[in-house]
Specification:
The complex is a heterodimer of chains A (374) and B (341). Chain A is an alpha/beta fold and 374 residues long. Helix content of chain A is 43%, strand content 13%. Chain A folds into 2 domains: 3-239, Type I PLP-dependent aspartate aminotransferase-like (Major domain) (Aspartate Aminotransferase, domain 2, 3-Layer(aba) Sandwich), CATH 3.40.640; 244-366, Aspartate Aminotransferase, domain 1. Chain A contains 12 helices and 12 strands. In chain A, strand 5, helix 7 (173-176) and strand 6 form a beta-alpha-beta unit. In chain A, helix 2 (25-45) packs parallel to helix 9 and helix 10 packs across helix 12 (349-366). Chain A is globular. Chain B is α+β, with helices and mostly antiparallel strands and 341 residues long. Chain B has 3 domains: 6-173, 3-Layer(aba) Sandwich (Rossmann fold); 206-261, SH3 type barrels (Roll); 265-340, Elongation Factor Tu (Ef-tu), domain 3. Chain B has 7 helices and 16 strands. Chain B has helices at residues 6-17, 41-54, 64-80, 87-106, 149-153, 164-173, 195-201, and strands at 23-28, 57-62, 112-113, 118-122, 128-132, 155-156, 209-212, 218-222, 246-251, 256-260, 266-277, 286-289, 297-305, 308-318, 325-330, 333-340. A 6-stranded antiparallel barrel of chain B has the order 11-14-13-12-15-16. Chain B is globular and about 65 Å long. The model of chain B has no long low-confidence stretch (mean pLDDT 93). The chains are: A alpha/beta (374), B alpha+beta (341).
């Protein structure tokens, strides 16, 4: 967590323990902090303060965006094939479908237009700003253009939601998601705490709430707000935005060094999305390795002090194949060896050196001893 | 391997206390519905919390694809071909002591341990045999009969010398949450609620069949011949009264189950295939066991080569359903294993 976020969280817990909905001075102390956070986040995301809905995290914000819009205006949802499960599973549950991506993870805009033309019931399209596994950034302007052309034939309206959880720390969300009607971000992905998220909603977008009760967050999300979490998220987002250019530059260099070092040191390892084939966030290094399975590789890396990931985890904690890698059409001999290395604002050059020392050794240990001809 | 049961919990504790460097691994084998066994989230939770309590690192390994290929698919295909498979044995053969062992080796581990109630006997010449566990009622040597010399050398069975009651007492003493957990009984990928019939119905065509007596007279019917096992007495659609009758033959191509008396089930010899001697052929009288908790009976094992063999019973015994493991013991030690044909 960013130190600024931790300090902000502790300050609220110590000095503003009141319920912000109350009528007393302690309530006002909490309310002021909550509203300050709301104003700051709204400014950074490019929406009106009244459009900020605090939630329990990215998953709830995604659910609220999709189910809230469908609940208020009817229709059906459509999303990219590489959405996070918090979007993908909600769209599937509502009977909606997916739009294909190319091998770099970019949305197939022709396919999107075809799907919209084929089904006038579609009232919401959800496309993540940056993919959480491979980092590819979508061109939401181009997506919005497709929606503009299709809107006249969609009687329930046609809104654009973007899950910006994986993008928020690394790009200017306000600029890149300017034409999105709903934006999701999450606390822990911007250096804030877990358990807090935001759905940013443009003026005029109707949302049916998921949670009924006290009517907080303008009747869109009942429940006593997590003031500390909201303030900490605001502090984290502010410092992230302030330092973005220098942090992105440093992390980009570290990521490039990591990719260059690993691909040079180990045969049959390559970036899953080739460099510069699509814009991506700075902090995600996603590699495909032949003749190695992710699961034992992660085991060895964990033993060596490198926390990496591959697909997603199921309820039991077992690794499941990634639907994202699957959607990219990665060749069958490369796909089982997916390896995702995420960097952060606090990643050090020593940690990159450590990864460069440990990962080639782990891959070598797991590969069949006879190296095939390159 | 920590299944989330009491046995593997205590096995892990014993190895830790013996000074081994232990990592707990739970296998995710089955993505579908499951009551218990090796596959459910609550069992993984139990294994992880026991590992936490013992101060061990715990991982979940996903062997779902291998399990489907080597255990579930053959289980369905065997039933379709009129055989009665033992999926736990196939899991031991292909998953626990093969795929998992292979991974353990790749990850740099010296041995794989489980909580099975069985022992590994080391003979004077250094070869090894699976042997019965100290708790006769819980003995699991039958389901481990297929382990070869290389596997036995890399396998640890810390509970082999213990009584089950002592295992539970030790678990309680250590404060492990699995101390009172019931033993798993059934096939882990089939739920009690829907059962074997509905599981197989979704995977193989089930054929209604005739039930005939030894003279070919039709005496009943079954909804699926694939679900009938030789020796079965219930569920054959027979009229009540009279002497009990058993399925003595199941013929899938003609969808016919032949029933007969208990005596009609008895055979003097049992053909087997896939014979594998643990440490080389053994002549003379052996004790042969044909189910996980069955009573062994005296017999000779006549090796015809190429894996084919005949069990020659000292006294006639019930026919063994095709597909069942036939395991030969000398004293407490497994000397051979094969599959009934």
């Amino acid at each position: 967590m960013r130190p600024e976020a931790l300090a902000a969280l502790v300050e609220v817990l110590e000095h503003a323990p009141g319920n912000p909905s109350g009528q007393h001075r302690w309530a006002r102390e909490a309310r002021r902090r909550l509203d300050d956070a709301r104003d700051g986040i709204a400014g950074l995301l490019g929406v009106e303060p009244g459009g900020i809905v605090f939630t329990s995290g990215g998953t709830e914000a995604d659910n609220l965006a999709i189910r809230g819009v469908l609940g208020a205006s009817g229709g059906a949802a459509l999303c990219s094939a590489i959405e996070h499960h918090a979007v993908l599973d909600v769209v599937h549950a509502s009977g909606g479908g997916t739009v294909a991506v190319d091998s770099a993870g970019r949305l197939d805009l022709d396919h999107l237009a075809d799907e919209l033309a084929a089904d006038p019931r579609i009232s919401l399209v959800s496309v993540l700003l940056a993919n959480n596994e491979i980092g590819t950034i979508q061109d939401l302007d181009a997506v919005a253009d497709v929606l503009d052309r299709a809107r006249p034939t969609h009687p329930d309206g046609l809104l654009l939601h973007t899950d910006a959880v994986a993008a928020a720390a690394w790009v200017d969300v306000a600029a890149l998601a300017e034409r999105a009607d709903l934006i999701t971000i999450s606390g822990h992905k911007v250096g804030g705490p877990k358990g807090i998220g935001v759905l940013a909603v443009r003026d005029g977008v109707e949302l049916a709430p998921l949670l009924l009760g006290g009517g907080q967050e303008r009747e869109r999300r009942s429940g006593t707000p997590d003031v500390g979490g909201a303030v900490a998220l605001g502090a984290a987002l502010a410092v992230t935005a302030r330092d973005r250019i220098t942090v992105v530059q440093r992390v980009e260099e570290q990521a490039e060094r990591l990719v260059a070092g690993l691909t040079a040191a180990v045969d049959h390892v390559r970036p899953t999305v080739p460099a510069r084939s699509a814009p991506g966030v700075a902090n995600i290094v996603h590699l495909s390795c032949r003749e190695v399975d992710s699961e034992p590789l992660l085991f060895l890396l964990d033993e060596a002090g490198v926390a990496a990931s591959a697909g997603s985890s199921c309820a039991s904690g077992a690794l499941e194949p990634s639907h994202v890698v699957d959607a990219l059409g990665v060749a069958p001999d490369w796909a089982p060896g997916a390896l995702r290395l995420s960097l952060g604002w606090c990643t050090t050059d020593d940690e990159i050196d450590h990864a460069l020392a440990v990962i080639p050794a782990a891959i070598a240990q797991l590969r069949p001893t006879a190296e095939p001809a390159a | 391997m920590m299944s989330g049961g009491v046995d593997s919990s205590v096995a892990a504790a014993l190895l830790r206390d013996q000074g081994h460097e232990v990592v707990g691994v739970t296998l995710k084998l089955w993505g579908g519905e499951s009551d218990s066994g090796c596959c459910s989230v609550s069992d993984v939770d139990d294994a992880r919390r026991v590992a936490d309590a013992l101060g061990l690192v715990h991982h979940v390994f996903n062997f779902g694809d291998a399990f489907t290929e080597h255990v579930v698919a053959p289980y369905a295909a065997d039933h379709g071909a009129g055989r009665t498979p033992n999926p736990c044995i196939e899991c031991n053969r292909h998953i626990k002591f093969a795929a998992v062992d292979e991974r353990a080796r790749a990850l740099g581990f010296d041995a794989v341990a489980t909580g099975h109630h069985a022992r590994i006997a080391v003979r004077p010449d250094g070869t090894r045999r699976i042997a019965r566990g100290a708790d006769a009622a819980k003995d699991q040597s039958y389901v481990l009969h297929m382990l070869d010399q290389e596997q036995l050398a890399r396998t640890l069975l810390p509970l082999g010398g213990m009584q089950k009651d002592d295992v539970r007492a030790l678990a309680a003493e250590l404060g492990l949450r699995t101390a009172g957990k019931p033993d798993s009984q059934d096939v882990c990928f089939i739920t009690k609620a829907t059962g074997r019939g509905s599981f197989l119905d979704r995977r193989i065509p089930l054929t209604p069949g005739r039930v005939v007596d030894g003279d070919g007279r039709e005496v009943g019917s079954v909804s699926a011949v694939e679900l009938v096992t030789v020796g079965q007495r219930k569920g054959l659609g027979l009229a009540g009264g009279g002497a009990p009758r058993y399925a003595v033959d199941v013929d899938i191509p003609s969808a016919t189950v032949t029933v007969g008396s208990k005596r009609d089930l008895l055979v003097a010899e049992q053909p087997v295939t896939g014979l594998r001697w643990s440490t080389g052929p053994v002549d003379g009288r052996l004790l042969v066991q044909v189910s996980a908790h069955g009573t062994p009976a005296p017999a000779r094992l006549v090796d015809a080569g190429d894996g084919h063999a005949t069990v020659v019973w000292a006294e006639p015994q019930r026919r063994v359903a095709a597909g069942q493991s036939v395991v030969a013991y000398q004293g407490d030690e497994v000397v051979a294993g094969a599959t009934a044909t």
